[in-house]
């Protein structure tokens, strides 16, 4: 246990709250135990013996707040995922998510840059201010350059896409201090809006470490239901738990109209800021 790192962690989280409070965001709390997780094929929520699941993300609950009329919200809190443990993963971790009405993924990108710069990530300590933005790299350009194919052309192959992301694209990103990997194939949209054949989604990497995942939010209830049903079917094929649908979310999502949000891993962010290589250095694990 690194006591100095834990103290610096507390100071960083305090600075994050100050950043959002100063920009008119409202801090919210939503349940940690939920009845219906979003059915992501490769994300498993720990079941609770008395019913429900520990959340992998507060996303659906926060979007219900957007539907109720809240316009700038953020939340810092614990999230959980089964089967994830290592130097960069832990079954329990801390996440910040924030959402804005009448915004898209580029608005949230600018929020994210401002937050990271305010915390000193990417800043040259010898310079009074950062002079350049973080790099933007489209998924299409990344795959053409580092994997020698275009995932937007020809027949879709999820296994090939995932393999080359891990062994080619993310390997190349390790040499970049900060990059927004953006504009995903529609097959990788998850809960993101698709426009002109491109999913309005980005992920932010720091030296190959994924820190954040952002969408221009899908606000079409019929399309959202279709994607949930497809994901549920894939989970069944994979032998994973079949999560119930969050009917309340599905009934309200269309009323949001236009919004964007992001999930950013606090533990990994602090690792990046402090130059630590293991999550065990910056949080208490047991």
Structural overview:
The chain has 286 residues and is of the alpha+beta class. It has one domain: BirA Bifunctional Protein, domain 2. 34% of the residues lie in helices and 21% in strands. The chain has eight helices and eleven strands. The strands form two sheets. Strands 1, 4, 5, 6, 7, 8, 9, 10 and 11 form a nine-stranded mixed sheet that branches. Strands 2-3 form a two-stranded antiparallel sheet. Strand 9 (198-206) and strand 10 (209-216) form a beta hairpin. The chain is globular. Mean pLDDT is 93; it is low at 125-131.
Summarize the structure.
The protein has 286 residues and is α+β, with helices and mostly antiparallel strands. 34% of the residues lie in helices and 21% in strands.
Number of helical elements:
8
Q: What would you say the CATH architecture is?
A: 2-Layer Sandwich
Q: In terms of structural class, how would the helical and strand content be classed?
A: alpha+beta
- Whole-number total of structural domains: 1
CATH class: Alpha Beta
Number of strands: 11
Order of secondary-structure elements: HEEEHEEHEHHEEEEHHEH
């Amino acid at each position: 246990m690194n006591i100095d790192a834990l103290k610096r962690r507390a100071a960083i989280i305090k600075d994050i709250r100050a950043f959002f409070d100063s920009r008119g965001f409202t801090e919210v709390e939503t349940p940690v135990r939920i009845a219906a997780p979003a059915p992501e094929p490769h994300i498993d929520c720990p079941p609770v013996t008395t019913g429900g699941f520990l959340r992998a993300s507060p996303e659906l609950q926060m979007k219900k707040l957007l539907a109720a009329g809240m316009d700038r919200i953020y939340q810092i809190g614990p999230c959980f995922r089964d089967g994830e443990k290592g130097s960069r993963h832990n079954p329990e971790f801390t996440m910040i998510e924030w959402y804005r009405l009448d915004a898209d993924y580029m608005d949230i990108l600018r929020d994210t840059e401002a937050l990271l710069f305010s915390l000193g990530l990417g800043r040259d300590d010898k310079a009074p201010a950062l002079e350049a933005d973080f790099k933007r790299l489209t998924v299409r350009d990344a795959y053409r350059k580092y994997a020698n194919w275009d995932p937007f052309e020809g027949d879709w192959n999820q296994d090939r896409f995932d393999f080359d992301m891990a062994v080619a694209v993310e390997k190349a990103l390790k040499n970049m201090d900060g990059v927004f990997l953006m504009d995903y194939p529609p097959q990788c949209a998850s809960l993101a809006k698709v426009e002109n054949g491109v999913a309005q989604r980005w992920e932010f990497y720091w030296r190959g470490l994924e820190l954040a995942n952002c969408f221009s939010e899908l606000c079409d209830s019929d399309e959202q239901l279709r994607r949930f049903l497809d994901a549920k079917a894939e989970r069944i094929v994979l032998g994973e738990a079949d999560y119930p649908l969050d009917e309340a979310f599905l009934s309200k999502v269309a009323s949001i109209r236009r919004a964007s949000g992001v999930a950013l891993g606090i533990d990994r962010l602090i690792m990046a800021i402090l130059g630590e290589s293991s999550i065990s250095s910056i949080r208490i694990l047991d």
